[in-house]
Structures are given as structure tokens and as C-alpha cells.
């Protein structure tokens, strides 16, 4: 067997062609042969310019290694007609490009790009077996840890609880006309005994879901969706499909077969629906939210609540100094600020909202704590901007003191807003009755949906994906640091709130 000058050792075929394994693919041009199964391919579009970037592929070699492939628009006509998912191919000559850093679908650092002299042909009568597929599953905790980070795209496997709001045990009816109009299907899915998560299947994935769902005589329960992206929608973790996503059910692939077997041995997991589906954000009054807490629920949840701002809570601090990297509350060291989460010293401190406001509706009064982006959404100004403006106006005076409540917050008194509030473990444990605000929604807002196209380039997804849904990443990260204090925003502080007269 011939040894390459760089030390790599491709195997040889009967025709003495040099064959390279995926593990040996490196950046740069290669005049050698790859043999693989074409698992899947899809179009990659620029969502802003509406232009085709190319064809992306997922390939697997004889050793089960997976790599991403790419076909530029100028070479599509030459090669696309030969490509069929599931078929075996050999590719002579290619270029190894560095894999993208965002929204990757394989672990390999290199992408196989078709070059000017690439030759693709069907691999006939291969004596070597090739795996049919390869999956990369994540648990709820792993998805949550990677939320909004635009990292690798992983696969989700679980059993369905709700399909477009219909209980899976009640034979859901799919309205394909409505689904075509909305361009998505919303499925509440649970992986084993973990939390229930919202899964949005868009465009082609939604069509594939409907086709498979209706093909079963009985209602299917097991669902596997590949390469999903994690987003924070209204403070709630949600999974959304990409143009690379594929849909499997029940007996389609071995992982769904195994999961179906597990579900048969654990029927209690399939039966629990209403008690587990707490990711669905409902609209409640303040009184109903407090009833949810008093009723002994042990689950954190997000709700929408329409309330009027009555006052700011005087005597409380409306901001905190955070680590500029992770937004955790900074601590004072001997000579500088430190971050206990990052473990760094001498960090740059950035003011973040933690403003307590007194609110009311027709049922009850409460103290809401505005965190991160929620404060910006209310005032239109970042906390850092307001703090900086105060100290610039006052010069060196009051450098050692905190900036008082700004007019931007005080001027919101009397305004009615639709708040997204989080019932935290501190609320459930009775340690605090103040409710954390993660987002402020428009008063006449339609249900939150994703403005994702059916075909787009994952590398530019963030440019077109968040339309209509501003992700409150800073507020989500800041919740842990803000909730660490038992007394921040406690309902007892409502006694401290003094009415401010407009214009005084």
C-alpha cells in the first residue's frame, strides 16, 4: 500500500486508485479518491439576498466517519443529476475547505468541496459495507446549555405530547392547508423522562412530518428530527428545524425502533400530558399566577401577564454591575472586579437591569423584576447608557454612590404592558413573591413564530431568523444572578413604593 508524503495511508482499490478515509482529509487540494454513502443533501440559500449559495451534503465513509460536503452553484448542473440520498459514490479529486464554525452538522473540521476537476460516479458492487446513517443526539440539558450560541446542530429523539396543540392520545387532525399557510408544525416533544420542549418544524420538515404522520394507520408517537437549532423564545427553550433537518418516526431507523421499544416498557411516560406540558406559555392574571404558586406546583414556568405599572420600588437598586462576558453579577476584589462564574479577575463591569417595579391588574398587585433586555424593551435604553449618562452629568460627584432611578423608568408609570414572567424555584419554595420579567411583548402581538425560510444558509441564519422574536439572551443569563438574593423585589417592599406624581 502506497504511503503519501504527508504520512497519511490511503487504502488501494483493485484498480490501484488511491482511496482516502474521512479521518485523513485535511485542508487543501487532494488528487485522491473518497468513497462514501450520500446520507442527505440540501440547498443552502442566503436569506437576505435570496440567492443560492450551493448544495450542502452529509457523507459517511466505510469506517462510519461523517463529513460535510459542498457543491458550489457553478458545479450543480454537472453533478446534481447523479446524486441520490442513500446511494454509494466515489469522488476523485476534491478540495478540503475549513468547516464553518456555526451551525455545523458534523464534527469534522474540514468540508469536502467539489473542485474544477472533481469526478463523481456511482460506486458499484462495493464489497465494503457502509453505514446507512449516523446521528448526534442531545439531551434537554445539553440543548439548554447551547441555547442561542449558534453552535453545532444536533438531533432530538423523543415521544410526542401535543401536535399543533392537540393531544397525541386523541388522534390529532392535521390541517395541511393551515400548515401550508403557517409554514410550520408545532410539536411538544419529551425525550425519555426529561422536560417537554417545543419543537417547530418549518417548511420542508413540516411537509415531511405531515406525510409521515398521515401514513400510519394508528397515531405515531416516536419522533426523531435531525440538526435542530436551539432558540430562546420568550424565555423558553425551543428547538427549530433547519434546511438540513430530516424527520423520522416509529420504525424508520434503529434509534426510533429502540425508543419505541423503551416507550412500550414505560407506558406512564406516554400517558402524562397536561401535567408535563409546562413549556406552553399561557396568559394569566397576576392572581392566577400566585394561585399557580400556592397550589403547590413544583415546576418552573413562563406566563404572559398584562399589567399596569404603578410605581418603581424605592429603596431598591435598579441595576447591577455584571461581568461583560457572561453577565453574572461581578464581585469586588481587593483591587478590581471579579467574576465567580468565569473565574476571571480584573474584569470589565457592565451595568445590567435589575429594576423592581410595582404593577397591578384587576385581580392583584405584584412586584416585577426587570432583567436584561426586558428593561431595554420597556425604556428603549440600555442600563449601561443610563448609568453612564448619570455620572457624566454629575462629574466626579457621587462616583462612590449608585445612580438613582432614571427618568426613562419613572416615565413608564401608568403604562400598560404585556409581560412575559417566569415563576422561579425561589417563588415555588416561598422565598420570594416577586416575579421575574424576561421579555415585554407588544399588546396586540400574534403568537411568536419563526421567520425562517425553507431553504437558507445556516451560516447566515441569524440575519433572518430572529424576525419578530428578539431573543433575550442577556436576561436569560442574568436570571441566576438576580435570583440569588431572597429579598430582591420581595412583595413586602411594596410598602416602600411611594407614588410619584407626573411632572414633579
Secondary-structure blueprint:
Blueprint: E1 11-12, E2 18-20, E3 28-46, E4 51-60, E5 66-71, H1 76-79, E6 88-98, E7 110-113, E8 119-122, H2 140-145, E9 154-163, E10 166-167, H3 176-182, E11 184-190, E12 196-202, H4 204-215, E13 222-233, E14 236-241, E15 247-249, H5 254-265, H6 267-271, E16 282-283, H7 286-294, E17 301-312, E18 319-323, E19 331-332, E20 337-339, E21 344-345, E22 349-360, E23 365-371, H8 373-379, H9 383-394, H10 407-410, E24 416-423, H11 425-428, E25 435-441, H12 461-465, H13 473-482
Parallel strand pairs: 2-3, 5-7, 12-14, 16-17, 23-25
Antiparallel strand pairs: 1-2, 3-4, 3-6, 4-5, 6-7, 6-8, 9-10, 9-11, 9-13, 11-12, 13-14, 13-15, 17-22, 17-24, 18-22, 19-20, 20-21, 22-23, 24-25
Rg measurement, Å: 27 Å
Number of helices: 13
Q: How many E strands?
A: 25
What is the average per-residue confidence, as pLDDT, rounded to a whole number? 79
Q: What structural class is derived from the secondary structure elements? A: alpha+beta
Poorly predicted segments:
1-16, 274-280, 445-504
Largest sheet: 5 strands, mixed, barrel
Pfam families: Rep_fac-A_C
Keywords: DNA-binding, Metal-binding, Zinc, Zinc-finger
Region (Disordered): 480-504
InterPro entries: Euk_RPA1_DBD_C, NA-bd_OB-fold, Rep_factor-A_C
List descriptors.
single chain, alpha+beta, 33% strand, metal-binding, Euk_RPA1_DBD_C, 19% helix, Replication factor A C-terminal domain-containing protein, NA-bd_OB-fold, Rep_factor-A_C, 504 residues, 13 helices, five-stranded mixed beta barrel, five-stranded mixed β-barrel, disordered N terminus, 25 strands
